[in-house]
């Protein structure tokens, strides 16, 4: 029996059992409400279908939306919970979705003007034309940029540069998978390095600042940057292990690209520069990365650099997939399932180290199936509300756990960006991603925990 059939069978069984209320009494005696029970069914269905690919990933997202509105919403309204259709529809046009669209527009415009070919040639000329050296170069650049920019924005820019190389190798080439996966893995890891490197970091700093226990920017870098360097090295080893077999030599990229410096060329250059500067200075002007990403969308289509055909060729299936992940986060939080799950954690009389490990692992598990930002928003207030001292290691460990979750395309926006290339299957990402996630969270909660204490952030 193949995994698609297994996934479909499990999905139907879960829907039948949960819709009939079988097993609800068991959960009800443990404090789970009917909406939470329904949300648990949706979570199991989504996880099963995403992992087994019994249906296309974007179809799973639409199933999540459908079940949310026709099954979960009525039960929430009956239970007196504040909810509406908009709560489940709005994630499909959230800020990160607009950021994706902007990234797609940048990539399409660079390709149309052959700037991506030119930049890819520049990268190879500096890193060499072998896979190991190229991976080191692009991963180092991606991780560094992700410390200061949105890691999604960084992934969008870097993927646009390496797609010509991956395309020349072809969809089935293992080297192509290594190149494409190196960017989301490096972007996810790089975000650990600074408080602004990822949304979970920023949320953790915000909550810690509110109670006066936040580390300084420099202290965060002292605990984050060593982890970034170690995880980058591990990611390189993992990618070479899974995809580095065979010929390491890469095909030559056209290094004599003729770029026509016409009106549209300068429009692309200006829009790319404005967008990049906007992403880098978001803390100054206050506009989100998604709002800044509207610049290339508006400029390129209004000026005729891109046309309707280019719009149709964008990876709308990936946007739907990401919207489903965000919608699932809404399902889990609005139904009360998230609060119930956290309440089941055995925290009474547990040491700070084990509490840190517990919340870090839970954060990692939840972020694998839903937005890491949503996970951080769910768990970090709970930790602060527990009034356990010192709370700093638990806050930092949870933030890191959110960012280290990267086994699936829906786990992080950079993962989804790479998946949108069409050259990566779920299992291509899941095997190395799960290994990196496991090793990363293990290091963070052992060696990392010791290092944080040595640095003196609590």
Secondary structure blueprint with pairings:
Blueprint: H1 3-19, H2 24-28, H3 34-52, H4 57-78, H5 85-89, H6 95-112, H7 115-127, H8 131-148, H9 151-169, H10 174-190, H11 199-210, H12 217-243, H13 263-280, H14 282-285, H15 289-292, H16 294-302, H17 308-312, H18 316-334, H19 337-343, H20 352-369, H21 372-385, H22 392-403, H23 413-419, H24 426-444, H25 447-455
Task: Tell me what the structure shows.
It is a single chain. The chain has helices spanning 3-19, 24-28, 34-52, 57-78, 85-89, 95-112, 115-127, 131-148, 151-169, 174-190, 199-210, 217-243, 263-280, 282-285, 289-292, 294-302, 308-312, 316-334, 337-343, 352-369, 372-385, 392-403, 413-419, 426-444, 447-455. It is mainly α and 458 residues long. The longest helix is centred in the middle third of the chain and has 27 residues, at 217-243. The mean pLDDT is 83.
Low-confidence stretches: none
State the separation between the terminal residues, measured CA to CA: 52 Å
Helix content estimate? over 70%
Oligomer: single chain
The outline comes out as: globular
Structural class: mainly alpha
**H/E element string?**
HHHHHHHHHHHHHHHHHHHHHHHHH
| Overall mean pLDDT | 83
Radius of gyration based on Cα positions? 22 Å
Task: Please tally the β strands and state the result.
Answer: 0
- Fraction in beta strands: under 5%
Our count of helices gives 25
Main sheet makeup: none
